[in-house]
Structure formats: C-alpha cells, structure tokens
Amino acid sequence: MPSPLRAALFDLDGTLIDSATGIASALNHTLQALGHAPEPETLIRTWIGDGARQLLRQGLQHAGGDLPDGEAFESAYALLMRHYADSLPLQARAYPGAEDALQGLHARGVRVALCTNKPQRFIAPLFEALGWNDLFDAVVGGDTLPVHKPDPEPLWHIARGFGIDPAQSVMVGDSRTDAEAARAAGMPLVLVDYGYRRGYDLQTAGALQVTADLRSLLDLAVE
C-alpha cells in the first residue's frame, strides 16, 4: 500500500460467502417451474459472477429455452428472484477466516464496507443469518446506485462517504468485475483465489496480493 490502509471494501458472493448452493437451488427451482431439468451445482458454479440476469440467461440457454429480452424474460427473472429470496439461508455460508478478517480490520481502525452487485434487499437477511449486522460501516448493493461494478462509482461513493482517497482503500474481490472496478477507481486490489472467477487470470490482474485467506489482509493494516 502506498499509504496507510484506512478502508477495506469487500465483494460478497465468492469473497466473503460461498453462496453457490443457495443460488443453484434458486436457479434450479426456476428452471423446473419453466419446464426444464435442473442442472448440477458444479456447473451452475461456473455461471455465477456476472449477476442474476446473466445467470438466468445462461441457465435458459443451456436448457435450450432461451428467452429474448422482454415480458417473458422479465417474468422468468421475477420468478428467479422469488426463489432467490427463499434460498438466502443456503447462501449464508461464510468462508473460513472471513469474519475474523472483518473483526480484525475493525480492531485496527480500518473502515469496512460491502460493495456487491447483489440486490440491496437480499443483504440484510444474509447479515442477520450470519450475525454480521455490526461488521460493516457502509453497504452498497447492486441497485443502491444507478450503476454497479465494474463501474467505479460504487467504490468512489464509499470512499467519499468515508472522507478518504481511493488510494487509501483496498477493493477485495474474486473476479474480473471487482478487478476492473478497482482499476477504474484508482483503488488497490486484493483477490481471493477461491470464489467465482469464471476463468479470469488472477495472477495478471495487478493485485497487491492473491490470497487463500482473508486474514492476510490484516498484514496490510497499520495499527
């Protein structure tokens, strides 16, 4: 870090929580309601990472039931969102070390924020299930602002709210979306080597570090 770390912004799915089992359940319930066969979770994991609309498009394409943009697709998407809400208890699976990292950063005086593309209305139930209601100083979901990652504005919005320069923060994520947002925002980047990378080459992303354990972030924090 070129300056002391004052804030850490975290992606959610694939970074702090392994939500794939719940997301796969939601997609499969949707596919079955539309007359298609369910898909293996291992396959659906490879589709996660570009948002729920793209997930639905990939599921329908694989099932041979593509829907063009319009009323039919929006109806299917609304159905997915209903099943998605029901799946939140299955999504609330924190990665080992995630909570320790969040608490440790707070203890070192680092502000902690969530910067995710998951719709805002799904975040509070997850926090409640995880017991994380008091761990974040700011939360930005995918529909909190008019734009979402990889646009840099969500990252800038959080930094402005904290009254700090983006260079004094770090974006922590698992995918190209997080990397491109951080690069555009002028914010240092840390990537986890698990999660939903969708074939993205983590080693060439220009990250400060690629880590298997979020507790390694504590080494960036100055007490």
Automatic annotation (TrEMBL):
Pfam families: Hydrolase (PF00702). GO terms for cellular component: cytosol. One of its GO terms (molecular function) is phosphoglycolate phosphatase activity. Pathway: Organic acid metabolism; glycolate biosynthesis; glycolate from 2-phosphoglycolate: step 1/1. The active site is at 11 (nucleophile). SUPFAM superfamilies: HAD-like. It comes from Luteimonas aestuarii. Its EC number is 3.1.3.18. This is Phosphoglycolate phosphatase. Mg(2+) binds at residues 11, 13, 174. PANTHER family: PHOSPHOGLYCOLATE PHOSPHATASE. Its cofactor is Mg(2+). Gene3D superfamilies: HAD superfamily/HAD-like, Putative phosphatase, domain 2. Keywords: Carbohydrate metabolism, Hydrolase, Magnesium, Metal-binding. Belongs to the HAD-like hydrolase superfamily. CbbY/CbbZ/Gph/YieH family. One of its GO terms (biological process) is glycolate biosynthetic process. It is an enzyme of class 3 (hydrolase).
